[in-house]
Amino acid sequence: MNMEISQAAAAWFKRELDLKNGDYIRLFPRYSSGGGLHPGFSLGIATEAPGRPAIQVKQDDIVFYMEEQDLWYMEGYDLSIVYSESEDDIEYKYEPKPVSGEVQVSLS
């Protein structure tokens, strides 16, 4: 799994959650009536230091991470977090990872 956070998305987190340089954002699956990748679950956030981070990315002096026990949620996908100016909100973009031996075709 790869994880990318745009600079604008990191700035949104800093502004909305009053984060300081060096703070942490944990991404984790949580029960939800909506859904992201899995019915009944969506991606939650918390401002807490990592315990057993499996993946982490630093953007705008904020560390975004997922713990080992939470990676099942992203299995087979990469995650990008981007800022939507029109919504003044962040957006999670889930990109399927190609299966080994699978050919990717781009339709343009």
Give a brief outline of the structure.
This protein is mostly beta strands and 108 residues long. The protein is 10% helix and 48% strand.
CATH architectural group: Sandwich
Distance between the termini: 26 Å
CATH superfamily, by name, is HesB-like domain
Overall geometry comes to globular
Cα radius of gyration in angstroms: 15 Å
Query: Helix-strand pattern, N to C?
Result: EHEEEEEE
Spatial strand arrangement across the major sheet: 3-2-5-4
* Count of distinct strands: 7
- Helix percentage: 10-25%
Under CATH at level 1, the class stands as Mainly Beta
Q: Roughly what fraction of the amino acids lie in strands?
A: over 45%
What keywords describe this structure?
4-stranded mixed beta sheet; globular; 3-stranded mixed beta sheet
Question: What features would you describe in this structure?
Answer:
- With 108 residues, the protein is mainly beta.
- 10% of the residues lie in helices and 48% in strands.
- It has one domain: HesB-like domain (Hypothetical Protein Aq_1857, Chain: A).
- It has 1 helix and 7 strands.
- The strands form 2 sheets. Strands 3-2-5-4 form a 4-stranded mixed beta sheet. A 3-stranded mixed beta sheet has the order 1-6-7.
- The longest helix has 11 residues.
Task: Note the topology.
Layout (H helix, E strand, L loop, with lengths): L2 E3 L1 H11 L6 E12 L3 E8 L6 E7 L2 E6 L9 E8 L4 E8 L12
Parallel strand pairs: 1-6, 2-5
Antiparallel strand pairs: 2-3, 4-5, 6-7
